[in-house]
Design a protein that fits this description.
- It is a single chain.
- With 141 residues, the protein is α/β, with parallel strands linked by helices.
- It has a domain at 2-38 and 76-135: 3-Layer(aba) Sandwich (Rossmann fold), CATH 3.40.50.300.
- Helix content is 26%, strand content 26%.
- The strands form two sheets. Strands 1, 2, 5, 6, 7 and 8 form a six-stranded mixed beta sheet that branches. A two-stranded antiparallel sheet has the order 3-4.
- The two termini are 14 Å apart.
Length: 141
């Protein structure tokens, strides 16, 4: 699984860039995105059954409709989430944020962050530079 980390200051364009990168990566394989919600919590909709199951202590609560599944997991450890996505067979994981992690990074804007392998790249530059990003293997089994 290839890890592509994207970092930058708030409102620098990280999310917009990732949204343009996803369809191009999808041409090459499966894609997952992990976003660091550093300044706010993700809100589960109050009064819904899946929220109630999560609040009651279910380790994982899943809601499914005809188009998608929504999963809430009582685990906020990045390494555990990467292992889970690796086990699911993801080819690419884009991580938005988690600036202190040492994965090779795409930096959007003027943020000083290492190791920076690309700064303000085009999507084509990322696709042609995939070998520069870390290959992740689940160390937990």
């Amino acid at each position: 699984m290839k890890i592509i980390q994207v970092v930058g200051r708030s409102n620098s364009g990280k999310t917009t860039f990732i949204r343009t990168l996803i369809p191009e990566l999808r041409k090459l394989g499966t894609v997952a995105v992990i976003k660091h919600l550093g300044d706010h919590d993700y809100l589960l909709e109050k009064g819904k059954d899946t929220t109630g199951f999560f609040d009651a202590g279910a380790d994982i609560s899943v809601g499914m409709d005809s188009n998608k599944s929504v999963v809430a997991i009582h685990n906020n450890n990045l390494d555990d989430m990467l292992a889970m996505l690796c086990n699911m067979g993801m080819a690419y994981v884009i991580i938005e944020g988690f600036k202190t992690r040492t994965f090779p990074k795409i930096v959007i804007g003027d943020l000083a962050s290492e190791p920076c392998v690309l700064r303000d790249p085009t999507v084509d530059q990322v696709i042609s530079s995939l070998a520069m990003f870390e290959d992740y293997y689940n160390k937990k089994g």
